[in-house]
């Protein structure tokens, strides 16, 4: 079964389970299928599949699930670049605005050779009056690297009804490599605004600093909810993004996406394959996060 079929099957399974137990479970999420045209020193394309879901039980137990798969085909490069991530985060909602739990994320980068990374740790959130503050602390195990790697980060979101949503965050990976402390920092900012008539505009920025090597990305896009014309909810999107990377040069990307949302409708949102979408779905692994956002 292909990765695409795995993702659609998982979304259908979650929707079916939650639908049969709607009195006990609240759920929300989306599947995004995307295509990106990359224009830079080396041109290419990127096929993406993204999945994100939250399942909340009446007991207070919640489960966050995430999946991201990227297949970059670059001209004059004899191999495809794969960037895959899968995450699961069980947590408990204390019904006073406080949520606490664990997170686990497996990432695989293939740039001619596989590099596996496994991130894990603690996370928590506090929500009130449309504002949510979050934090995480953990570690990442990287294949071939025996040195200590520590991850920590802060994030916040604000939702004004179903019209406006804003998100921002900071994440740092600290690596003790060969006796030296190396810091990998990522700042994020994103926003989405529902203009009505099924049109939403979104924008985001991502600033990465890897010991003096910058990877900065910004993006602007729009989406159209065509659900009134289709038998299932469907949202089409387009985004223009630009990355300025010290090692890769300038990269221009046009992203096209189709989102299949399911569950409870929330506030305005950005597609999972957009720069703004990455601000609403912060990853504890700054290495894979910066690369996925750039392409």
Summarize the model shown.
The chain is mainly beta and 295 residues long. The protein contains three helices and 14 strands.
What is the secondary structure topology, with strand pairs?
Blueprint: H1 3-20, E1 25-39, E2 44-57, E3 61-74, E4 81-93, E5 98-110, E6 114-128, E7 131-142, E8 149-160, E9 164-177, E10 180-196, E11 199-210, E12 213-225, E13 235-245, E14 249-263, H2 275-280, H3 286-294
Describe the structure.
The chain is 11% helix and 64% strand. By secondary structure, the chain is mainly beta. Strands 1-2-3-4-5-6-7-8-9-10-11-12-13-14 form a 14-stranded antiparallel barrel.
Helical fraction? 10-25%
Poorly predicted runs: 1-8, 10-23
What would you report as the Rg, rounded to the nearest angstrom?
19 Å
SS-derived structural category = mainly beta
Order of adjacent strands in the largest pleated sheet: 1-2-3-4-5-6-7-8-9-10-11-12-13-14
Topology as H/E string? HEEEEEEEEEEEEEEHH
Rounded average pLDDT: 86
What is the count of β-strands? 14
Described by the principal axes of the CA atoms, the overall outline is: globular
Largest sheet data: 14 strands, antiparallel, barrel
So how many helices?
3
